Amino acid sequence: MSIKLFDSELKIMEVLWEQGTVPARDIVDVLTDRVGWNKNTTYTVIKKCIEKGAIDREEPGFLCKPLVTKDEVQQSETEQLIDKMFGGSSELFFSAFLKNQGISEEEAKRLAKLIEEAK
After folding, report:
1. What is the DSSP letter of 59?
2. Mean pLDDT value of segment 16-28
3. Beta bridge partners of 56
4. Residue 1 has pLDDT above 70, yes or no
């Protein structure tokens, strides 16, 4: 599943990934504390997530349920980034990442193991 979520929508999804199915008013409370959003802002962003198929809304109580996992969104976002910025080449992506970030010996060993397992 390929889904593009904006930063504001990811804030909603983070709450749902942490807490599971919750009433919209609980999401309002969390995001008021975390980022200072008001109720209208939160409901507007929830509506956008529903329209994109990321959230299902159930009655009674305006219960919001995540329809995509964090892993699915991370994979989709990563694929879109690699396609957009590196012409779809994972090798170019890793090369740029390593050049800019660098990694420790331990991280290199873990990455080598992941690459071996992915073959």
Report:
1. T
2. 96
3. 65
4. no
